């Protein structure tokens, strides 16, 4: 009921408010350029592109057993890497960095930022035949703490060449199951004659990079499907500045002692198949695969392919990939692990237990909001209402998983309090919090009342409505501040967010300038801050006035009446800050693309109405 209430509040506004606003989850790494845009931006003609060597991104595949033998799912992307100058890479990398620039990073971090930027600005090769793929036994894969990598064995033979049956998609992707030859004697073991997972190296002829490892997985056994960000490594995807630095520049760092638990599972559970599923777009996943190879047991991979590039597709890709691996191995049991900051996880994981009731063994979710104050996004636990508590657990730290016998279905550590409301929990700033998760080892992150949830959702909806009108310009440097005119605009600051706002969006009686409280970072000049109350947030929604004397439109009046007429101005500003600080950095479509946010915090600049 709570989820439908939130969506009904948003939907009633009559504007196209995306579902990720209701869920409170930003779309990280959105809007990467594709081939034609990269070619155009770099000024390359067709002959220059044709002269570039062809490269292949190989995603580590899994294989299942069919009546025809082993069936390998080859998937990846074919592309060409432009010869981009260091200065151009620096300029492009700075687009992704918040509050810093590449020349301010340590040399190793600057190199990583350039390398990742180069992997994003590639020219995908659509409608292209993939070169011959070579398979050969893989001696090791992954750093599970075991000699040879753990999680699989090296077959004594089975080397062969594969030709894919189809060309690449328009985005350069390929994803197809191809049967490989059965080899008797000193080759591959037949899947119906062994419980062991076999690993094979995969590389494409003529490509200088892009090797991967294929995992031949028997029909029965256990598979863990693991997210990566904020469960296996420290990302802080819910804090844009930190999330982007941790992904673009800083070395990948494991989350606490999580590698120890994966290594233990690899050693103690026979033939445990590790499958890593991240919705990070495939161009940015080489660092992910390298990190897993060095830190965790080797395993197959799924990433977000390029044809899942818009917001709606991004929110559906996890379920699509989960369905694929579940349907590929209908007799295997699955352990699902991720964190609460992903709205698609909170929806899709419990749904998998409903759709595939005999296949989901355990669900483990790190509660990021209970242990990381930077995660202010609410999360929806309603999907777990009808699930048996013994099959899932919200946990705080890896040690909460100690001693669980997941093979025999023990997925819940009773010493870890859950405190679930089966609705929206973890609202930011304590809005609607009726209890706290502090003390003991609770993983609840706080319970949330309907009133608090509706209050924040209404504020969020109004903030989105205002931002969608294009009324706000975030100020950092001269190009933005130059648009400020004292008689036409107010400047509002809360926390590290500064907004330049047309005054005709504000209630006349609320305008009260305060001088000298915000400093323009570029020019060093002082500009005024106006404590104001926007027309759309006044208590009396039936009589809204604007400074230019224009009567509000019927659409505006309709919007006002659909949301609480007692919506506090403070809640509205809080919601604007949540939006501008947490969504604007992700390259979303629409007006967000034109916003620039600053990264400084002037506590004296807070509007007087707060």
Automatic annotation (TrEMBL):
* Top-level taxon: Eukaryota
Which terms in the Gene Ontology molecular function aspect does this entry carry? Answer: phosphatidate phosphatase activity
Q: Name one GO cellular component term.
A: actin cortical patch
> What Pfam family is a match for this entry?
APP1_cat
Q: Which residues form the Phosphatidate phosphatase APP1 catalytic domain?
A: 222-367
InterPro entries annotated for this entry? APP1_cat, MFS_trans_sf, Mg2+_PAP
Q: What is this protein called?
A: Phosphatidate phosphatase APP1 catalytic domain-containing protein
Q: What is the lineage of its organism?
A: Eukaryota, Fungi, Dikarya, Ascomycota, Pezizomycotina
